[in-house]
Specification:
The complex is a heterodimer of chains A (114) and B (114).
Chain A: E1 4-5, E2 10-14, E3 19-25, E4 32-38, E5 45-51, E6 56-59, E7 62-67, E8 72-77, E9 86-94, E10 101-104, E11 108-113
Parallel strand pairs in A: 2-11
Antiparallel strand pairs in A: 1-3, 3-8, 4-5, 4-9, 6-7, 7-8, 9-10, 9-11
Chain B: E1 5-7, E2 10-13, E3 19-24, E4 31-37, E5 44-50, E6 53-56, E7 65-68, E8 75-79, E9 88-95, E10 104-105, E11 109-113
Parallel strand pairs in B: 2-11
Antiparallel strand pairs in B: 1-3, 3-8, 4-5, 4-9, 5-6, 7-8, 9-10, 9-11
The chains are: A mainly beta (114), B mainly beta (114).
């Protein structure tokens, strides 16, 4: 049972345009959501997060939107740059037990074309 | 180098052999996590340490997998009697405390079992 789903394995966008990456989740216990960015041969790096009590968080070119009723979140990148080309992972986090465990989606490969 | 480091970066072994993968977390981070990322998938949680103790090992696939963190800093993931299905990238992450939302990832160890 995939608790976090990223249904688009890849996305291509022209430089300067908006990139929208989508993520759906099923676990209602998630109280925090994070987006990680991963370049080849590197570990994921934290990009932006949002608490489940909010519906939007913005950081520079990156904005994350959360729709709790639809169990859906999205990452918007405006304007997109070639350096944004990477795999983007959505993750849900729950406080269960003694750990804040991350549950990742399968990722979306974003390619920004110059 | 203030980030999480992992050694080796690549490990090729034969089926049935024993391997050890090492993780050096960020200095001062008390929480340490191991994840496994198979091709085309997001990272999957394996085990979490708070200090020296394994606080949550619910993600370990079977008893061939074991991890230690004897002094509360460096951690070693140990895999006995390796199988071809163990081939994956093994990622280590650390966070300042067990309640910190952001986890910092290392570059991973790519394990190939022939």
């Amino acid at each position: 049972d995939q608790q976090v789903k990223q249904n688009s394995p890849s996305l291509s966008v022209q430089e300067g345009r908006i990139s929208i990456l989508n993520c759906d989740y099923t676990n209602s216990m998630f109280d925090y959501f994070l987006w990680y960015k991963k370049y080849p041969a590197e570990g994921p790096t934290f990009l932006i997060s949002i608490s489940s009590i909010k519906d939007k968080n913005e950081d520079g070119r990156f904005t994350v939107f959360l729709n709790k009723s639809a169990k859906h979140l999205s990452l918007h990148i405006v304007p997109s740059q070639p350096g944004d080309s990477a795999v983007y992972f959505c993750a849900g986090e729950s406080p269960g037990g003694s750990a804040r465990q991350l549950t990742f989606g399968s990722g979306t490969q974003l390619t920004v074309l110059p | 180098g203030a980030g999480v480091s992992q050694t080796p970066s690549n490990k090729v072994t034969e089926k049935g052999k024993y391997v050890e993968l090492r993780c050096d977390p960020i200095s001062g981070h008390t929480a340490l996590y191991w994840y496994r990322q198979s091709l085309g998938q997001g990272p999957e949680f394996l085990i979490y340490f708070q200090g020296t103790g394994a606080a949550d090992d619910s993600g370990l696939p079977n008893d061939r997998f074991f991890a230690v963190r004897p002094e509360g800093s460096v951690s070693t993931l140990k895999i006995q009697r390796t199988e071809r299905g163990d081939s994956a990238v093994y990622l280590c992450a650390s966070s300042l405390t067990q309640t910190s939302n952001e986890q910092f990832f290392g570059p991973g160890t790519r394990l190939t079992v022939l």
